[in-house]
## 1
Amino acid sequence: MGTRRAFLRKAGLSAVGTVAGITLLPSPPDATDPTGTVEAAEPPSAVAEWTDEPITDEDDAPIGRYHYEPTGDGFRATALFNVVVLPEADGDRGLETVMSVLEVEGWIRSPEEYTRFAWDRQTESYVRQQATAAQAYYGVNGRRHVRCWSFEGVVSMQAHEDSAARPTHGVPSYQRGRDTIEAIFDGAGWRVSPDAIDLANAKEPDHDGVATVIAEDP
Amino acid sequence: MSTETDSHRSLEVRAAVSAVLRHPLLGLEPRRTALAGAYLLGLIAMFLASYVGARVPISDSLRTPLTSGLDTLSLLVIALVTATMLLAPLCYAVWNGGPLLSFGLPLTPVAVGDIMAGAYVLDLDLAVALTVGASAAALALLATDVRQVGSVRFWRADTHEDRLVFVTAIATVAAVGIGRFVGTAPSYVLEWYAPMGVVWLVTAAVLGSYWLNWARSAWHTLPTGAP
């Protein structure tokens, strides 16, 4: 009888523990599936002056073409910008609005990542990444990841896919990063215009040199 | 007087630490358990250095060396965390038993990262950590019994039922989490998770054979009613 009672007590305790553990588990993110089609909108008038000709210089527009890594004798371009976002608010507030859309998707702010710089034509200086987010803090089995800068009210976003860390990340795709961002902002009700601005920054493995424009205005 | 109190207190602390290190849920040999604990503390220290480094201002004059240093640190953190999440728990479980610490090893870096980022979400990193952690806990159970018997015939070991129940509870919590994760993740994330399916086979095989063994022995010891 005693062992039976002990057994029931043990079973009850472990059931309580299991339920407590399950309750403590966070929920998975409500992630947008990027395979659906995005309804393409006309590029907003705010970017009209940059949609006709390719942008071939960092000083042509407040839009970055590449982000850079400092080297012993200057800066080396590491990855290209492939998304341009126009939030309604300027500066930090606008940038935060953009990032909040990713937070709702369960993305993590400022994950473990390298430090990169982009050219600010107004201050004529290289500026460190202002806001970043990824689907996972380390991305051990892969993640999609963005770095953002806001210059003159325009957010330049570098979106890419990180491969699984074995032991470090590679970039198997820029396009899939861009597709994911398009789908997420489309789902959040922003206007998405794929292939709107030619940044003339095509790069292996799959970037065609053109950026998507995403605008907040309804 | 005060030095006496201090030395008394330090003895108490030492006794408490030693008692913790001897806890069978953490590991079989206190020295190895301590080593794993020190490794985790080192990893957290490295994480914090990288975290703070990403937030200190970088002056123009120090830009190149600081960036290169921070990038190296991030590279090391990601590489070490990857090893800590995929390999270390399984190796530790085989080497020193201890289902709780085996389960905690992959979860620690993920928890530290998510806490510092203010995130509370079952993302792919956490899904991987739960999967490997549950499997390592099951392996720790097996490793403890194999060592006790001195042969791979674990079923001859005098397994503590408590430990089996504990590991089963851990695996159940992990399985529920993964079930929810798999139910909502987009297909490309599932593809990234897919290789972890093999790890679940290990967990299921170990726990399945333990419970089968338990059911068999429970059947044999069932009171028949006859004198």
## 2
Amino acid sequence: MITLTDVPFDPGAALNAFSDGRLASGAVVSFLGLARGEANQPTALELEAYGGFTEREIGRFAGEAMTRFGLDDVAIVHRFGVIAPGEPIVLVMTAAAHRREAFEACDYLMDYLKSRAPLWKKEHGPAGARWVEPTSRDLADIARWD
Amino acid sequence: MARVLLFGRLSDIAGWHERPFEAASLSSLKRLIADQAPDLATALDAPGVQTAVDQIVVRGEAVLSEGAEVAFLPPMSGG
């Protein structure tokens, strides 16, 4: 399930809900991404989403990851709007029979989300605001899976 | 009438996020934009800008039905 929200979310509650009642899955892996603050600099992150389109595209990719890694389930919570330093931006949760597939799928989905997901990122800093593109590191990370 | 949505840097360049245009095809919409907002038209032609009609990415020409939603999507930056 793909959830986009413009208000802070509770990652612990989301993980409990995702794990609850699973009998066949021996492994649940989660990754929580936080908005990083630069030292002594008032910064905020703004993410723009295209309502409906963004969820569907991320969902399509999550479905591919389900098949590729043989997952039992996957869920992603992603913030949009203005995000303060230290707040959770993204939570990826994968469930599989065994841990390896769950770890790898979580890693893969994060590489996708950081480079190809239909989200547009703006950084607000002391010098003004600027749109951010994926870094060369982000692009190298997703290329590992091709 | 089509509803045009701009995302990312495109809405900063144009100064708006959403605006109606009287256009029955993508090519006539782009002609209108070129007349009214040449800076935006140039930005729309930049590499990596995708077009979605009613939330489906299209390439080339497309017919715009009454109330169609056209979105111009700059290169996606991820979260």
